[in-house]
Structures are given as structure tokens and as C-alpha cells.
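Researcher: Let's try something more involved. This one mixes different molecule types, so please make sure each is placed in the same coordinate frame as the others.
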Amino acid sequence: MSRAPMKLYCCGCKGEVQARLVTGKETYPHRRDLHDLPFWRCDTCGNFVGCHHKTKDRTRPLGCIPTPEIKSVRSEIHKVIDPIWKSGRVGRRELYGMIAHVIGVDEYHTANINSIDQANEVLRVAKDLGAAL
Ligand SMILES: [Zn+2]
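Model: All components are placed in one shared frame. Result:
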């Protein structure tokens, strides 16, 4: 897979980096099932982000390049918010709108969380909303 590097925000380097397009062979050597998937990797810190690989634009990054720590809090966030909107108590879009409002951004996407502080804040907000809704 060869493509020009892409400028992406890297949470590990705390700034924009020239990310390199690689395959799962490089990011997950022991996961054969992921070997054909595209990832954008920061060669400075070694962190990487996956792509919207199921879409037509299969190398479009999911968001910024997270650190393992941010990645793990993001998955905690999904564990809290996904059951809320899947229950039908509130729509997904509406829930994301509420989170955006509370944390003070125009639009909220879990993949765009770019610091551990923000990740922990969203997790706290999500838990509060989960209890309130
Ligand atoms: Zn980096």
C-alpha cells in the first residue's frame, strides 16, 4: 500500500505529524485477521489510527492518532454510551449532541478525543448522562 503521508494530529506527539499509511501486518503482527486493513501510523511515537475501511474511501482515518491510554478510555466511553442509545431511551445523535454541549464543543465524536483529560471528562459526562436518562 503506498500513498503520500497524511497530516494528522498525534496525541502521543501532541501535534500534527506526517502519518504513514500501513497495513495491519505492521500494527498488529499477531492478528492475521487484521493484516489487510489500513492504518495511519506516526513513526515518531509508533501510535496509529484505523480507517473507515468499510466505506468507499477506505483509507480515511477514523480520527486523530490516539495513545494506548486514550484508546482504552475511548472504549470505556463506548461501553457506557452505546447501551444508552441502543436502549432507545435517547437517539444516538441526540446523545452525542448532549455530550458536545456539556464538554463545550460544536460536535462530539469519540474518535476525535485527543487528550487523556478530555477522554476522562467525556467518560464522567457519559456516566452522568447514563444515570440521568
Ligand atoms: Zn506521534
